[in-house]
Write a structure and sequence with these properties.
The protein is of the alpha+beta class. 28% of the residues lie in helices and 26% in strands.
């Protein structure tokens, strides 16, 4: 699970701590590659979250995204599988940011990824 930290009062100056539980995704692509690709949009996700923190300084929660990757590496879809984050604009913004990802070509078939993100004020 990745942790997305933010502060409405001042820019975040430290590097956030990222945690993701062990995930089995099959032989098509490694967890390391999945993390690297998703984290390439981490700054966009932080911007989404920080806009929510300006509206609600104690906003926090978990968002699990379902990411479906086509064999070409292009995304078929990104959906919000579950969320405890009480700001639909933030969850929508995060899903949109992730929707621009491109993965390496897969060795076999499509890939479905459940990707948890924890948002901590």
């Amino acid at each position: 699970m990745d942790v997305v930290e933010g502060s409405p009062r001042a820019p975040v100056r430290r590097v956030p701590h990222f945690v993701m539980p062990p995930v089995t995704v099959g032989p098509a692509v490694s967890v390391v590659v999945i993390r690297r690709v998703v984290r390439s949009r981490m700054e966009e996700m932080r911007r989404c979250y920080r806009s929510g923190l300006r509206r609600s300084p104690t906003l926090g929660g978990r968002v699990t995204l379902e990411i479906v990757v086509q064999p070409s590496g292009a995304l078929q879809r990104v959906t919000i599988k579950s969320t405890t984050l009480a700001d639909p604009a933030v969850t929508s913004c995060v899903a949109h940011a992730v929707g621009t990802l491109v993965f390496p070509r897969l060795s076999a078939g499509s890939l479905v990824i459940d990707y948890p993100l924890l948002f901590v004020p």
